[in-house]
Amino acid sequence: MVGVICGSGLSGLSNCVENQKTVYFHDIPGFPEATVPGHKGELVFGTINGIEVVVMRGRFHYYEGNSMTNVVMPVRCMRLLGVKMLLVTNAAGALNPNFNVGDIGILQDHFGVPIITGNNPLVGPNDNSLGPRFPALSDTYDGKLQELVQECAKDLGFKDIVRPDCTYCFVSGPAYESRAECKFLRNAIGGDMVGMSTIPEIIAAKHVGMKVLGLSLMTNKVVVEKTENTVHASHEEVLAAVQDSGIKVEAIVKKLIDNKVLGDFLDKCPTVEYTPKKQSIMNSLFGELAARDVLTVAGAVIGGMLLNGLFNARRNR
Predict the structure, then answer these.
(1) Reduced to 3 states, what is the DSSP secondary structure of residue 306?
(2) Can you give the residue range of the structural domain that contains 248?
(3) 315 assigned to some structural domain
(4) What are the pLDDT digits (tens) for 179-207?
(5) Catalytic status, residue 220
(6) Would you state the pLDDT for residue 225?
(7) Of 266, 139, 149, 121, which Cα lies nearest the Cα of 215?
(8) In the annotation, is 235 catalytic?
(9) Which of 85, 113, 115, 275 has the fewest beta carbons under 10 Å from its own?
């Protein structure tokens, strides 16, 4: 199974899903709510070209007041539901002066400002049956997946707008970055784009053994110099850019998530068997879900779906 997290305005990615069954966040006990415009707040289950998927339409941001545990909790749920590969998308500001609005960056590295200041989603008790205490992040982004994206883009005629080997910079938000901050992220870090999400989820995915792919849609060029005609960033600008270019991200995702392309790759990915050892550790890893005395988080999610008569887990097997 493949998990997909949709960035701002990119909920149209679920249009690729066949045999759709939709579960709303508010129908799952203990799940937070998505509050940001452009984030639907629902899970869409189904298949894309023969591969089972769960698409998260809307995410939880740190700047909404969520704990890092809640920000990444859906990723851990996905893993327990059988997800082997996580595709994370986002809308980002282009730091690289050679990038244009509408370009799609493939992540190969990241720099997380909140992460290195102590707001890491792995802080707290660790359960070794789910992931290691000290995971390495130097091999987070799977090279094979990056190559497959480039091949798909070439076949679709998008080669010129897909930018490989990008470094994504994660900031907390919700305010857009100052000129000095943008200069620092570009000149000192070598960042190619900047945004307010993605990296906590990717760290959590790496921790639990998922293969990871990150795609960023450039929705604006950051402001590094103030001029008379400077256009300052706004969420409306971001959503408008996604409206124009999001269909290309959707096309790449649909071409990539295909049994002919990913079948062998997914077959080689490890599965997970998780037995929680202590309730206190469950609380740390899964937040409110575990605090409601749920036996397992996967059970909570599936139970919520069955309660609403929406989804028969693994129906195609």
Answers:
(1) helix
(2) 2-307
(3) no
(4) 999 999 999 999 999 999 999 999 999 99
(5) yes
(6) 82
(7) 149
(8) yes
(9) 275
